[in-house]
Amino acid sequence: MKIHNFAETPSLVSQYLSEMRDTSMQADRLRFRRNLERIGEIMAYELSKTLNYKAVSVKTPLGVDAVCDEIDHKLVLATIFRAGVPFHQGFLRYFDDAENAFVSAYRKYKEKENFDICIEYLASPRLDGKTLVLCDPMLATGASMELSYRALLTKGSPAKVHIASVIASQHAVDYMNSVLPEDAELWVGVIDEKINAHSYIVPGLGDAGDLAYGTKE
Hints:
A hairpin with a 5-residue loop joins strand 11 (194-195) and strand 12. It is built from six helices and twelve strands. Helices cover 31% and strands 35% of the residues. The strands form three sheets. Strands 1, 4, 5, 6, 7, 8, 9 and 10 form an eight-stranded mixed β-sheet that branches. A two-stranded antiparallel sheet has the order 2-3. The chain has a two-stranded antiparallel ribbon with strand order 11-12. The N and C termini lie far apart (37 Å). By secondary structure, the chain is of the alpha/beta class. The radius of gyration is 18 Å and the shape is globular. Helix 1 packs antiparallel against helix 2 (29-48) and helix 2 (29-48) packs across helix 3 (84-94).
C-alpha cells in the first residue's frame, strides 16, 4: 500500500489540522466542518494527479479547437456516516461528476472499552472496474474502514482503491496495509503514534462526528 502523508511536507493541511485539534476552536462547528471539506478538496486535487487522462478536443468561443486533458476514470466517492459527510463533500466539490456511495458503520459498545463495528446501511452503484475513493476523517483501529470496504465489495470489484483520512493511527495504517490490495493508496493528513484504551487516536482531536454535528445519545 502506498502512503501519502501530508504531514511530511507542511502545507495548508497542517494549518487546518492545527485548528481542528485546538480545543479553543472546536466549539465552532461550522469551521470544523469547513476544515474537513478543505482537507478533502486538497486531497482530491493531489489524488487527481495519480489518475489517467485522455486528450479531448473542445471548441472555444473563437471557433478554434483546443486539445485538453480529461479524467479517464469512472470514480466512485464513498464515505462512512456521519463524520465522513463533510470530508466527502470536499472530494465531491472537485470530482463533481463522480458517482457516490454511503455506508453506515458505528461502534456498538458491549462493555466500557469493548465494542463491535456494526453496519446497517449501504447505498452504492456497481463498482466493477471503477476507481473507489473511500473516505472517513478518523482512522483509529481500521476496523470500521475495513468492514465498510468489505461491504462495498458486495457491489463489485473496483479496479483501484484509495483510502482517505484526516488523522490515522500508526496501528490503523499497519492494519490497513495488511487487508487492502497491494496497489491501494492511503491519503492521510497526519499519522499519530498511539490509540488509547477506548481506541481513540492520541493526540487525535476527539470525536469528529460530535465536533461536526453535536453530541448523540
